[in-house]
Write a structure and sequence with these properties.
248 residues; alpha/beta; Rossmann fold; 3-stranded antiparallel sheet; 7 helices; 10 strands; globular; binds 2-phosphoglycolic acid
């Protein structure tokens, strides 16, 4: 794992966006894995700026999102489809038909998940997967205990995750947060050719030290990334506060 510590959240976002932009320039028809949540918003803002100011071209890019709430339609303002349209897709020249987000209201959710896995494989696999991290070490909605071999499936959200997503940033009442989601699995994520995990704020410092310096264990899903051959972790100083070793 390559660990890069940036002074501020803005610097983290810019450094992460540059990795995406470089890939899009080198491979215009690349397959990107995208994430939602508070952390990637700044990175998406930088990509939008690069598109508007420098012509960064998304016209041949395909994207797959990590997860979606079970029961929420893409028009729901807390759905991850809505988030992606609002925070990135509506502001760049990506073709909407090339943006894949799990369907939270699929008639047969597991069948939909199986199809998602097949589509990712058929299209050649994800070139670069963006990840945030939960305070409990989850990536996507793979909560602690998620098997290394897991694939896209229906998952239960922990009370901690429900609380984190109803602190006013997204939902305002925990009762409104769906208790289940569809999520790429650990094996799906680990299949990506390159992975970029970003994290900011002190609330992520525990999860980051366990991810980077702790043992690789399903109890801290992000720590399984240690076994991936091309993973970069970009964090701000607050999220790096508990690291004990020296990093760039
Ligand atoms: P956040 O969530 O970016 O909103 O902090 C990250 C996550 O839970 O994976």
């Amino acid at each position: 794992m390559k660990v890069i510590i940036k002074k501020t959240t803005d610097e983290m976002s810019l450094a992460g966006a540059k990795i995406f932009a470089e890939l899009i320039c080198k491979k215009p028809n690349c397959i990107l894995g995208l994430a939602t949540g508070g952390t990637p918003v700044g990175l998406y803002k930088e990509l939008i700026k690069m598109h508007k100011q420098d012509g960064l071209d998304f016209s041949k890019v395909t994207t797959f999102n990590l997860d979606e709430y079970l029961g929420l339609d893409g028009d729901h303002d807390q759905s991850y489809r809505y988030f992606m349209n609002d925070n990135l897709f509506n502001h760049v020249n990506i073709k909407k038909e090339n943006t894949y987000v799990l369907n939270g209201v699929a008639a047969d959710p597991q069948l939909f998940c199986d199809g998602y896995e097949m589509l990712i494989k058929a299209i050649g696999g994800i070139d670069l997967q963006l990840l945030g991290i939960g305070g409990n070490g989850h990536i996507a909605f793979n909560e602690p205990g998620s098997p290394r071999s897991s694939r896209t499936r229906i998952v239960d959200l922990t009370p901690e995750t429900i609380a984190a997503n109803s602190d006013g940033r997204f939902f305002s009442d925990p009762k409104d947060v769906p208790t289940q989601a569809l999520s790429m699995g650990m094996a799906t994520i680990l299949d990506a050719k390159e992975i970029l995990l970003i994290a900011n704020k002190e609330s992520k410092a525990d999860a980051i030290v366990k991810t980077v310096e702790g043992p690789a264990t399903e109890d801290v899903p992000a720590s399984l990334l240690q076994a991936h051959s091309n993973t970069t972790v970009i964090i701000d100083e607050a999220a790096a506060a508990k690291l004990t070793k020296e990093y760039a």
